[in-house]
Amino acid sequence: MSAGDEGSGPEVRVIDTLVGLPEGLHMRPLTIIATTAADFVSAVRIGRPGGPSADVTSMLEMLALAIGPGEEVRIEATGRDADAAAAAVLELFDRGFPEPG
Amino acid sequence: MLIKRGIAVSPGVAIGPSVVLGAEVFKIPDQFVPVDAIETELARLRRAIDAVGVDLEENEHVAADRFGTQYGAIFSAHRQLLADPNLVGEIETLIRTKSYAPEHAVRKVIRRYAELLQGIGKPLLAERSNDLLDLEKHLLSRLLGEPRGEVASLVAPAIVVAHNLTPSETASLDRRHVHAFVTETGGRTSHTSILAGALEIPALVGVGRFLDGLGGGETVIVDGDQGVIIIAPDDGTLARYRERLAEQHTLAVRREAFADVVPQTADGERIRVLGNIEFPDEVDHCVERGADGVGLYRTEFLYLGREVEPTEDDHVAAYRRVIAACGSKPVTIRTLDLGADKMPHTLLGAEQADETHSALGLRSIRLSLVDQSLFKTQLRAILRASVEGDVRIMFPLISTLAEIRQAKFVLKEVQEDLEEDGVAFRRDIPVGMMVEVPSAALLAEEFAQVVDFFSIGTNDLIQYTLAVDRAETLVAPLYNSGDPSVLRLIRRVIRAGRKAGIPVTVCGQMSSDPKYLPVLIGLGLKQVSVTPQAIPQVKDTIGRLDRPTAAAIARHVMQLEVASDIDSYLMGRLAVLRGEAE
Asked: Is the ipTM of this complex over 0.85?
């Protein structure tokens, strides 16, 4: 998927990845996802592919998904910087959620 | 005198008056607010949220400065929870549509989410609900205008006892005044427990109900080594613990002085002192005390508190951390030592696993040999990590020769797999076993032909030899390290090791207790592995011993028939060694 034209409706970017963290998606990684996604204007949701998803601004929604280690996760970004937002979140998974800064 | 057991999350001993922290007793004045006051109430809520945000940021910095960034991160997660639009949105809706007072709305919404997290049925998530309740406390005290800091305001030495301590309360404990804490609830992996370890004060969690009979001010003893709290101790118990406390103080003072001391007896016999660890970060406690390596790296933490098996990479990461910190010094990794009942995801299935929960059941190496995929994952990881330092593999709970042969066979299979995959590993990795079942001690000479080293796990050896479950208070007095039967088994293993030319280590709690060192060294032991906190004290005791004296002590002890005689004799000898008596 590539960047859509301005004005042709919101762009959507979907990426599936795996949770490599031994503890699954708990408070620390979720905090990092929330703060990372806040840098973009796109709305970002995470969830199991085909299952319910959570808005990444809501720690509680994300916690309630209870996504464990080794599970598949779908990152879905909607908005004009969807590509960049989804990529930034994906990078967190790839790099094992380093502490920011 | 009342003795209660709990989960020991931070070692050490403390004695002091109890201070009971009340449950969250916020009196919420009014449930509803007048309709025309709704806007002012909403503004009041927002001010409280902002103020709590500032507090949390402050907490984050304090925790990060005091303990390290990973602890600060606990509070940045709290801030993120506070910023959750659902949470704030629902609270505001309740105020707007139902005229709830903000205090009432906060409680209602947070409690609902906490119950939701508890109801998912995953222990780790249930513990996170505690983080939410921490947030509730914060918000309520801001809204009600009460300055927080019940805990921070303690000015005299005390032992804090509470139904529950939140992470921020724990982080705000002042070590100068709070000498230990004990809570009725909580688990090993809760944030409160993690912070307790960082504070380095003795702590117990998950004790169960014990506060009902406590008014505050009673003398309590917290033993973070044995995992017990003793309320209103009798004089004898108090005297015994005062002694341990005095030892602990001396120890703290000597810790630095002994970091660079190479442990050897007064007549020049080098004794190796290694550390026992459970979590990877504990390796730092060993290194800073000048340990000769890690003699026992327990790996159960990798399996507990999670729903699925740890991956090979999870294992490797945990091992690398410790190996790197140890440099060229040895790291002995013990394979899984848990009962099937604590492992929800083995091949057995939950129903069958539930059938076995005793110390005599399907556990430890027995489980590894039944669920070999689990076992092989761990072995692969240990082998992969073996190229980065001096790594050794140790199998726990070996009771027959067939078992150790089978374990070595599986290891060989894994080595062949790695070879095929072209993955580097150390081919001649030393393979040893725990000697903790009497059958293994009795056949030590035969076992010595099959393994590269022995490590005597005294805790289990005592339990299995004397048929005493040390977690049961009614029989606890029967559990005694100094029992002549136990000492004879230890002597047998040390002799078998010497004869075969393989190293023998003692790694149970017995080796951390300085009074047993003379007899162990007298029996010919040259290596101990102890809790990191005990390293300076053990080095000190070794330096005061010479081999002829130790041998004489061992000879005398071997003639005594009763554990209590042996203990009092050894206590007397230790006092002499320290120049405290005669």
From this structure: no
